[in-house]
Design brief:
Keywords: Lyase, Metal-binding, Zinc. With 129 residues, the chain is mostly beta strands. 12% of the residues lie in helices and 40% in strands. It is built from 2 helices and 11 strands, in the order E-E-E-H-E-E-E-E-E-E-E-E-H. The termini are far apart.
């Protein structure tokens, strides 16, 4: 998959993925004013052009964005050394929604009709720590 930030200063190349997951946690919603539409990437992620700006948002993760236009690029999970990319970077790619995490933090003002795997924050931490 190939994608770019809004201004085109950063180009991203990652292995093809068919699915996205949504994260409804408070940090993702504060960062993007809605759930993060997340593409879990297997293998290398290549950034070309400008170097992404990184922000250490927790003990276990960094968030990356374009220093020029502010486009949200990734959530980087430090223990797993894994990039989770913003689905919006890949405008020409069709994804299917397959999971939602931190469903217990989702606000009441939106609901999704998709029948997906749903996990609370506690369930996420129990499974991945």
């Amino acid at each position: 998959m190939k994608g770019t930030c809004l201004c085109g200063a950063i180009e991203i190349t990652a292995a093809d993925s068919e699915h996205i997951g949504l994260c409804h946690c408070q940090m993702c919603r504060r960062w993007g004013s809605g759930p993060m539409h997340a593409v879990h990437c297997e293998g290398a992620v290549i950034f070309a052009g400008d170097t992404p700006t990184r922000y250490r948002s927790s003990d276990w993760a960094e968030r990356g964005f374009c220093g020029q236009c502010g486009t949200h690029l990734f959530y980087y999970l430090l223990p797993a050394e894994q990039y989770i990319l913003s689905a919006g970077l890949f405008q020409d790619h069709a994804f299917a929604l397959n999971s939602e995490i931190f469903i217990d933090e989702k606000p009441d003002y939106y609901d999704l009709k998709d029948n997906t795997l749903k996990m609370t924050g506690r369930e996420v931490f129990e499974k991945y720590t």
